Amino acid sequence: MILKYVWGILTEPRVAWARIREEDCSVFETYIGTIIPLALISPVAGFIGTTQFGWQIGAGKPVTLTAGSAAQISIAYFGAILVSVFVIAMLVRWMSETYGDQKSLARCVALAAYTAVPMFLVGVFQIYPVLWINFLFGLPALAFSVYLLYSGVPIMMEIPVERGFLFATAVLAVGLVALVGLLASTVVLWSYGLGPAFMSG
After folding, report:
1. Distance in angstroms (rounded) separating the CA atoms of residues 117 and 107
2. Where are the domains of the chain?
3. Which 8-state DSSP code applies to residue 199?
4. In the chain, is it the N or the C terminus that has fewer CB atoms within a 10 Å radius of its CB?
5. What residues in the chain have per-residue pLDDT under 50?
């Protein structure tokens, strides 16, 4: 069922985590039913926002992207989200062996996917790309995702809470490093002429 556990993960995280663990959906089912629909939110909202509304710096006119440029960036953004979830899941799977019992890739993908639900959903605000609005809603979403990670790791990995705290902290640290790496790669790509094309006039 598409988006089956999204409401539960937002309202009763611990109950939802237990149900997700018991159902143990395949990687394919989690991608089709949850990750892909949610991952589309930010790229689609960003495409609309950057082509129809644009963003404003100071008192200047709003800056918008061409449809072609925005489409390329949105597609790359969507692909990066899908790959990032999988990479984090692989990291979680590798780390689970360190904590005594390597879990299935499917379970690790589910952990990565449902941890990111608040970040997926808050992407809708990219439809109006004003920096302070995105920060206003993005920071609480990030905080809730961190909470979901810390609450979900012990349940999904079936380890004590104390060990789960260390596990989740390691995953969070690597996730932040990956984010910095993604931003750095964006700068490199832009320097090779793959940056955005702005509307003239």
Report:
1. 16
2. 6-194
3. P
4. C
5. none
